[in-house]
Design goal:
Structural class: alpha/beta
Bound molecules: NADP nicotinamide-adenine-dinucleotide phosphate
Strand content: 15-25%
Strand order of the largest sheet: 4-3-2-1-5-6-7
Oligomer: single chain
Shape: globular
Distance between the termini: 13 Å
Helix content: 25-40%
Number of strands: 13
Protein backbone atom coordinates (compact mmCIF):
# COMPACT_ATOMS: atom_id res chain seq x y z
CA UNK A 1 0.00 0.00 0.00
CA UNK A 2 1.32 3.46 -0.86
CA UNK A 3 1.02 6.32 1.60
CA UNK A 4 0.90 9.86 0.21
CA UNK A 5 2.98 12.42 2.11
CA UNK A 6 2.19 16.08 1.42
CA UNK A 7 5.24 18.30 1.76
CA UNK A 8 5.66 22.09 1.78
CA UNK A 9 9.08 23.54 1.01
CA UNK A 10 10.47 26.87 2.23
CA UNK A 11 13.63 27.98 0.39
CA UNK A 12 14.27 26.96 -3.21
CA UNK A 13 17.98 27.76 -3.36
CA UNK A 14 20.76 25.21 -3.79
CA UNK A 15 19.32 22.78 -1.25
CA UNK A 16 15.61 23.28 -1.98
CA UNK A 17 16.10 22.82 -5.72
CA UNK A 18 18.24 19.73 -5.07
CA UNK A 19 15.37 18.34 -3.00
CA UNK A 20 12.92 18.87 -5.87
CA UNK A 21 15.37 17.00 -8.11
CA UNK A 22 15.44 14.09 -5.65
CA UNK A 23 11.64 13.95 -5.65
CA UNK A 24 11.90 12.96 -9.31
CA UNK A 25 15.09 10.86 -9.20
CA UNK A 26 14.03 8.84 -6.13
CA UNK A 27 10.30 8.62 -6.81
CA UNK A 28 10.38 4.94 -7.74
CA UNK A 29 12.66 3.92 -4.87
CA UNK A 30 10.46 5.75 -2.37
CA UNK A 31 7.35 4.03 -3.69
CA UNK A 32 8.78 0.53 -4.07
CA UNK A 33 11.02 0.43 -0.98
CA UNK A 34 9.09 2.51 1.53
CA UNK A 35 5.56 2.72 0.13
CA UNK A 36 5.80 6.53 0.07
CA UNK A 37 4.54 8.97 -2.53
CA UNK A 38 5.74 12.54 -1.98
CA UNK A 39 3.58 15.35 -3.30
CA UNK A 40 4.42 19.04 -3.11
CA UNK A 41 1.50 21.13 -1.86
CA UNK A 42 3.28 24.39 -1.03
CA UNK A 43 6.50 26.30 -1.69
CA UNK A 44 7.99 29.67 -0.78
CA UNK A 45 11.06 31.73 -1.59
CA UNK A 46 11.95 35.40 -1.17
CA UNK A 47 9.47 36.41 -3.90
CA UNK A 48 6.37 34.85 -2.32
CA UNK A 49 4.60 31.54 -2.11
CA UNK A 50 2.67 29.02 -4.20
CA UNK A 51 -0.10 26.73 -2.99
CA UNK A 52 -3.77 26.12 -3.63
CA UNK A 53 -6.18 23.39 -4.50
CA UNK A 54 -4.37 20.23 -5.55
CA UNK A 55 -0.65 19.61 -5.89
CA UNK A 56 2.16 21.59 -7.43
CA UNK A 57 3.99 19.82 -10.24
CA UNK A 58 7.43 19.84 -8.55
CA UNK A 59 9.36 19.25 -11.78
CA UNK A 60 7.58 22.18 -13.38
CA UNK A 61 8.28 24.41 -10.38
CA UNK A 62 11.96 23.45 -10.61
CA UNK A 63 12.04 24.46 -14.30
CA UNK A 64 10.26 27.72 -13.40
CA UNK A 65 12.85 28.47 -10.69
CA UNK A 66 15.79 27.50 -12.89
CA UNK A 67 14.48 29.87 -15.56
CA UNK A 68 15.03 32.66 -13.01
CA UNK A 69 11.41 33.18 -11.88
CA UNK A 70 10.28 33.46 -8.29
CA UNK A 71 7.80 31.12 -6.62
CA UNK A 72 5.45 34.09 -6.17
CA UNK A 73 5.20 34.33 -9.96
CA UNK A 74 4.27 30.66 -10.42
CA UNK A 75 1.29 30.46 -12.79
CA UNK A 76 -2.16 30.06 -11.19
CA UNK A 77 -0.92 29.04 -7.69
CA UNK A 78 1.59 31.86 -7.05
CA UNK A 79 0.99 34.55 -4.37
CA UNK A 80 3.47 37.37 -4.96
CA UNK A 81 4.97 38.80 -1.77
CA UNK A 82 3.26 36.33 0.55
CA UNK A 83 5.61 35.57 3.49
CA UNK A 84 6.65 31.94 3.89
CA UNK A 85 5.07 31.81 7.36
CA UNK A 86 1.68 32.70 5.85
CA UNK A 87 2.00 29.87 3.35
CA UNK A 88 2.80 27.48 6.23
CA UNK A 89 -0.29 28.78 8.09
CA UNK A 90 -2.59 28.04 5.15
CA UNK A 91 -1.12 25.10 3.24
CA UNK A 92 -2.48 21.56 3.53
CA UNK A 93 0.68 19.56 4.25
CA UNK A 94 1.96 16.80 6.50
CA UNK A 95 5.58 17.93 6.61
CA UNK A 96 7.37 21.28 6.38
CA UNK A 97 10.81 21.19 4.74
CA UNK A 98 12.78 24.29 5.76
CA UNK A 99 15.79 25.37 3.67
CA UNK A 100 15.90 29.16 3.92
CA UNK A 101 19.08 31.10 4.87
CA UNK A 102 20.55 30.98 8.37
CA UNK A 103 19.85 33.96 10.60
CA UNK A 104 21.75 33.64 13.87
CA UNK A 105 20.18 36.65 15.53
CA UNK A 106 16.46 35.98 15.03
CA UNK A 107 16.28 32.54 13.41
CA UNK A 108 13.88 34.07 10.88
CA UNK A 109 12.19 33.45 8.52
CA UNK A 110 12.65 29.77 9.39
CA UNK A 111 11.80 30.01 13.09
CA UNK A 112 8.24 31.27 12.64
CA UNK A 113 7.63 28.72 9.88
CA UNK A 114 8.72 25.91 12.21
CA UNK A 115 6.62 27.20 15.10
CA UNK A 116 3.50 27.46 12.96
CA UNK A 117 4.03 24.04 11.39
CA UNK A 118 4.45 22.36 14.79
CA UNK A 119 1.43 24.22 16.20
CA UNK A 120 -0.62 22.95 13.26
CA UNK A 121 0.46 19.36 13.96
CA UNK A 122 2.81 19.05 11.02
CA UNK A 123 6.21 17.36 11.20
CA UNK A 124 9.27 19.41 10.31
CA UNK A 125 12.55 18.60 8.57
CA UNK A 126 15.26 21.25 8.71
CA UNK A 127 18.34 22.01 6.65
CA UNK A 128 18.47 25.49 8.19
CA UNK A 129 20.35 25.60 11.51
CA UNK A 130 19.05 29.05 12.49
CA UNK A 131 15.80 28.01 14.24
CA UNK A 132 17.63 25.37 16.32
CA UNK A 133 20.48 27.61 17.35
CA UNK A 134 18.10 30.37 18.44
CA UNK A 135 15.29 28.30 20.01
CA UNK A 136 16.35 24.67 20.47
CA UNK A 137 14.57 24.06 23.79
CA UNK A 138 11.35 25.79 22.75
CA UNK A 139 11.11 23.82 19.50
CA UNK A 140 11.91 20.49 21.16
CA UNK A 141 9.19 21.11 23.73
CA UNK A 142 6.72 21.96 20.98
CA UNK A 143 7.68 18.84 19.02
CA UNK A 144 7.67 16.44 21.96
CA UNK A 145 5.00 13.77 21.75
CA UNK A 146 1.88 14.72 23.67
CA UNK A 147 0.87 11.15 24.41
CA UNK A 148 2.44 9.58 27.53
CA UNK A 149 5.54 7.69 26.48
CA UNK A 150 7.70 5.38 28.60
CA UNK A 151 10.90 6.92 27.23
CA UNK A 152 9.89 10.40 28.35
CA UNK A 153 9.26 9.60 31.99
CA UNK A 154 11.49 8.80 34.93
CA UNK A 155 15.24 9.40 35.22
CA UNK A 156 16.87 10.48 31.99
CA UNK A 157 13.58 11.49 30.44
CA UNK A 158 14.80 15.04 30.06
CA UNK A 159 17.87 13.86 28.20
CA UNK A 160 15.89 11.72 25.81
CA UNK A 161 13.43 14.53 25.28
CA UNK A 162 16.37 16.72 24.25
CA UNK A 163 16.84 14.75 21.11
CA UNK A 164 15.74 11.38 19.88
CA UNK A 165 12.38 11.43 21.65
CA UNK A 166 11.27 14.45 19.62
CA UNK A 167 10.19 12.52 16.60
CA UNK A 168 8.30 15.27 14.81
CA UNK A 169 11.26 17.59 14.35
CA UNK A 170 14.17 16.15 12.37
CA UNK A 171 17.37 17.96 11.51
CA UNK A 172 20.10 15.50 10.54
CA UNK A 173 20.87 17.67 7.48
CA UNK A 174 21.92 20.61 9.65
CA UNK A 175 25.17 19.00 10.83
CA UNK A 176 27.47 17.99 7.96
CA UNK A 177 24.74 17.28 5.41
CA UNK A 178 24.64 13.58 4.61
CA UNK A 179 27.20 12.50 7.26
CA UNK A 180 24.93 10.99 9.92
CA UNK A 181 26.60 12.80 12.84
CA UNK A 182 23.43 13.28 14.86
CA UNK A 183 22.10 9.81 14.06
CA UNK A 184 25.35 8.24 15.28
CA UNK A 185 25.46 10.36 18.41
CA UNK A 186 21.81 9.91 19.35
CA UNK A 187 21.09 6.39 18.20
CA UNK A 188 24.35 4.47 18.06
CA UNK A 189 26.46 5.69 20.99
CA UNK A 190 23.87 4.38 23.43
CA UNK A 191 24.93 4.52 27.11
CA UNK A 192 28.30 6.05 26.23
CA UNK A 193 29.95 8.85 28.11
CA UNK A 194 31.32 11.04 25.36
CA UNK A 195 34.55 12.55 26.64
CA UNK A 196 35.53 14.50 23.56
CA UNK A 197 34.15 15.33 20.15
CA UNK A 198 36.40 16.73 17.43
CA UNK A 199 35.05 17.66 14.04
CA UNK A 200 35.74 19.29 10.75
CA UNK A 201 32.16 20.43 10.38
CA UNK A 202 32.39 22.99 7.59
CA UNK A 203 33.37 21.92 4.09
CA UNK A 204 33.78 25.46 2.71
CA UNK A 205 36.62 26.32 5.09
CA UNK A 206 38.13 22.86 4.70
CA UNK A 207 38.11 23.30 0.93
CA UNK A 208 39.65 26.78 1.22
CA UNK A 209 42.49 25.52 3.46
CA UNK A 210 43.21 22.59 1.12
CA UNK A 211 43.10 24.84 -1.96
CA UNK A 212 45.44 27.36 -0.28
CA UNK A 213 47.87 24.51 0.49
CA UNK A 214 47.76 23.71 -3.24
CA UNK A 215 48.68 27.31 -4.13
CA UNK A 216 45.25 28.97 -4.71
CA UNK A 217 44.58 32.36 -3.18
CA UNK A 218 42.02 32.69 -0.36
CA UNK A 219 39.59 34.66 -2.60
CA UNK A 220 39.93 32.24 -5.51
CA UNK A 221 39.24 29.27 -3.21
CA UNK A 222 36.17 31.00 -1.73
CA UNK A 223 34.79 31.70 -5.21
CA UNK A 224 35.22 28.01 -6.08
CA UNK A 225 33.31 27.00 -2.93
CA UNK A 226 30.50 29.43 -3.78
CA UNK A 227 30.29 28.04 -7.33
CA UNK A 228 29.76 24.54 -5.86
CA UNK A 229 26.66 25.79 -3.99
CA UNK A 230 27.89 24.78 -0.54
CA UNK A 231 29.04 28.13 0.87
CA UNK A 232 26.56 29.98 3.08
CA UNK A 233 24.66 32.88 1.45
CA UNK A 234 26.78 35.04 3.77
CA UNK A 235 30.27 33.44 3.49
CA UNK A 236 31.42 35.20 6.67
CA UNK A 237 29.40 32.55 8.52
CA UNK A 238 31.74 29.90 7.12
CA UNK A 239 35.05 31.76 7.22
CA UNK A 240 34.70 33.24 10.70
CA UNK A 241 33.80 29.84 12.14
CA UNK A 242 30.14 30.51 12.97
CA UNK A 243 28.73 27.75 10.78
CA UNK A 244 30.94 25.19 12.55
CA UNK A 245 29.97 26.74 15.90
CA UNK A 246 26.27 26.42 15.01
CA UNK A 247 26.76 22.74 14.32
CA UNK A 248 28.66 22.26 17.58
CA UNK A 249 25.78 23.89 19.47
CA UNK A 250 23.35 21.48 17.81
CA UNK A 251 25.58 18.49 18.72
CA UNK A 252 25.81 19.80 22.30
CA UNK A 253 22.05 20.03 22.66
CA UNK A 254 20.98 17.00 20.66
CA UNK A 255 23.72 14.50 21.53
CA UNK A 256 25.56 15.64 24.66
CA UNK A 257 22.40 16.81 26.44
CA UNK A 258 23.97 20.23 27.21
CA UNK A 259 21.75 23.31 26.66
CA UNK A 260 24.62 25.25 25.07
CA UNK A 261 24.18 28.37 22.96
CA UNK A 262 26.59 30.18 20.65
CA UNK A 263 27.74 32.28 23.63
CA UNK A 264 29.26 29.11 25.11
CA UNK A 265 31.52 28.52 22.09
CA UNK A 266 34.93 30.15 21.80
CA UNK A 267 35.09 30.91 18.07
CA UNK A 268 38.00 31.84 15.81
CA UNK A 269 37.77 31.40 12.05
CA UNK A 270 40.31 31.01 9.26
CA UNK A 271 40.26 34.65 8.11
CA UNK A 272 43.82 35.31 9.33
CA UNK A 273 45.40 32.06 8.12
CA UNK A 274 48.03 32.69 5.43
CA UNK A 275 49.76 30.36 2.95
CA UNK A 276 52.92 30.86 5.06
CA UNK A 277 51.11 29.49 8.16
CA UNK A 278 50.09 26.41 6.18
CA UNK A 279 53.61 25.89 4.80
CA UNK A 280 55.20 26.31 8.25
CA UNK A 281 52.80 23.74 9.75
CA UNK A 282 53.59 21.39 6.87
CA UNK A 283 57.32 21.74 7.56
CA UNK A 284 56.66 20.71 11.19
CA UNK A 285 54.74 17.62 10.04
CA UNK A 286 51.33 19.18 10.77
CA UNK A 287 48.28 20.30 8.83
CA UNK A 288 46.08 23.29 9.72
CA UNK A 289 42.34 22.54 10.01
CA UNK A 290 39.35 24.41 11.41
CA UNK A 291 38.44 22.07 14.27
CA UNK A 292 35.30 22.17 16.42
CA UNK A 293 35.84 20.61 19.83
CA UNK A 294 33.61 19.65 22.73
CA UNK A 295 35.84 18.55 25.61
CA UNK A 296 34.56 17.23 28.89
CA UNK A 297 36.37 18.01 32.13
CA UNK A 298 34.80 16.78 35.33
CA UNK A 299 31.13 17.19 34.49
CA UNK A 300 31.40 20.23 32.23
CA UNK A 301 31.98 20.52 28.51
CA UNK A 302 34.09 23.28 26.97
CA UNK A 303 33.25 24.20 23.38
CA UNK A 304 35.55 25.79 20.81
CA UNK A 305 36.05 26.30 17.09
CA UNK A 306 39.67 27.18 16.26
CA UNK A 307 42.22 26.65 13.52
CA UNK A 308 44.49 23.90 14.85
CA UNK A 309 47.76 22.43 13.57
CA UNK A 310 47.10 18.67 13.69
CA UNK A 311 49.83 16.00 13.52
CA UNK A 312 49.58 14.08 10.26
CA UNK A 313 48.54 10.90 12.07
CA UNK A 314 45.45 12.60 13.58
CA UNK A 315 42.35 11.20 11.81
CA UNK A 316 41.12 14.70 10.91
CA UNK A 317 44.47 15.68 9.32
CA UNK A 318 43.62 13.56 6.28
CA UNK A 319 40.11 15.05 5.92
CA UNK A 320 40.71 17.33 2.97
CA UNK A 321 38.98 19.29 0.21
CA UNK A 322 35.22 18.78 0.23
CA UNK A 323 35.35 16.26 3.06
CA UNK A 324 34.06 16.69 6.58
CA UNK A 325 34.70 14.38 9.52
CA UNK A 326 33.97 13.68 13.16
CA UNK A 327 35.81 11.82 15.92
CA UNK A 328 33.93 10.59 18.98
CA UNK A 329 36.00 9.69 22.07
CA UNK A 330 33.79 7.47 24.23
CA UNK A 331 34.22 5.47 27.43
CA UNK A 332 32.78 2.13 26.29
CA UNK A 333 32.66 2.24 22.47
CA UNK A 334 36.22 3.31 21.76
CA UNK A 335 37.28 6.13 19.48
CA UNK A 336 35.13 6.34 16.36
CA UNK A 337 35.88 8.31 13.23
CA UNK A 338 33.47 9.01 10.37
CA UNK A 339 34.02 11.12 7.27
CA UNK A 340 32.11 12.11 4.20
CA UNK A 341 33.24 13.43 0.83
CA UNK A 342 30.32 15.52 -0.29
CA UNK A 343 30.25 18.03 -3.07
CA UNK A 344 27.34 20.28 -3.91
CA UNK A 345 23.94 20.46 -2.24
CA UNK A 346 22.52 17.04 -3.25
CA UNK A 347 23.86 15.21 -0.13
CA UNK A 348 22.19 17.78 2.15
CA UNK A 349 18.91 17.41 0.28
CA UNK A 350 19.40 13.64 0.58
CA UNK A 351 19.75 14.00 4.35
CA UNK A 352 16.39 15.83 4.38
CA UNK A 353 14.94 12.94 2.42
CA UNK A 354 16.46 10.52 4.98
CA UNK A 355 14.70 12.41 7.79
CA UNK A 356 11.46 12.44 5.86
CA UNK A 357 11.53 8.68 5.28
CA UNK A 358 12.52 8.06 8.91
CA UNK A 359 9.50 10.05 10.06
CA UNK A 360 7.14 7.52 8.54
CA UNK A 361 9.01 4.35 7.60
N1 LIG B 1 24.23 24.45 0.57
C1 LIG B 1 24.54 23.43 1.36
O1 LIG B 1 25.28 22.52 0.96
C2 LIG B 1 23.96 23.34 2.75
C3 LIG B 1 24.36 22.29 3.60
C4 LIG B 1 23.77 22.15 4.87
C5 LIG B 1 22.83 23.08 5.27
N2 LIG B 1 22.49 24.12 4.46
C6 LIG B 1 21.49 25.09 4.92
O2 LIG B 1 20.36 25.02 4.07
C7 LIG B 1 19.76 26.30 3.95
C8 LIG B 1 19.66 26.64 2.47
O3 LIG B 1 20.94 26.67 1.89
P1 LIG B 1 21.11 27.02 0.35
O4 LIG B 1 22.54 26.78 0.03
O5 LIG B 1 20.06 26.35 -0.42
O6 LIG B 1 20.81 28.60 0.38
P2 LIG B 1 20.47 29.54 -0.85
O7 LIG B 1 20.95 28.94 -2.11
O8 LIG B 1 20.95 30.90 -0.47
O9 LIG B 1 18.86 29.52 -0.91
C9 LIG B 1 18.07 30.13 0.06
C10 LIG B 1 16.64 30.08 -0.39
O10 LIG B 1 15.83 30.71 0.62
C11 LIG B 1 14.99 31.69 -0.01
N3 LIG B 1 14.73 32.79 0.91
C12 LIG B 1 15.51 33.85 1.24
N4 LIG B 1 14.85 34.65 2.08
C13 LIG B 1 13.63 34.09 2.25
C14 LIG B 1 12.47 34.50 2.98
N5 LIG B 1 12.45 35.61 3.72
N6 LIG B 1 11.38 33.70 2.94
C15 LIG B 1 11.38 32.55 2.19
N7 LIG B 1 12.43 32.14 1.47
C16 LIG B 1 13.55 32.91 1.51
C17 LIG B 1 15.78 32.17 -1.21
O11 LIG B 1 14.87 32.77 -2.11
P3 LIG B 1 15.27 33.23 -3.59
O12 LIG B 1 15.44 31.93 -4.38
O13 LIG B 1 14.10 34.02 -4.02
O14 LIG B 1 16.54 34.00 -3.46
C18 LIG B 1 16.35 30.84 -1.70
O15 LIG B 1 15.40 30.15 -2.46
C19 LIG B 1 20.65 27.29 4.73
O16 LIG B 1 20.09 27.48 5.99
C20 LIG B 1 21.96 26.54 4.86
O17 LIG B 1 22.68 26.87 6.03
C21 LIG B 1 23.03 24.26 3.21
Amino acid sequence: MTQTMRVALVGLGNVGRAFLELMTIKRRVLRERYGLELVLTGAADSSGAAFGAGHIDHANLLRHKRAGHGVGQYPRLGHRGMPAAEMVRQVEADVLLEASPVNLRTGQPGLDCVRIALQRGMSVVLANKGPLVVAYRELMDMAAPTLPSPVLTGNGGGWLKAGWGSQRLRFSATVCGALPVLNMGQRDLVACDIQRVEGILNSTTNYILSAMEAGHSFDQALREAQAEGVAEADPALDIQGWDAANKLVIIANAVLGVPATLKDVDVLGIQDITPDDLAAARARGQRVKLVAVAHRQNDTYRFSVHPAALPLDHPLASVSGWEMGIVWHTDIMGVQFARVDERGPIPTAAAMLRDLVNLYA
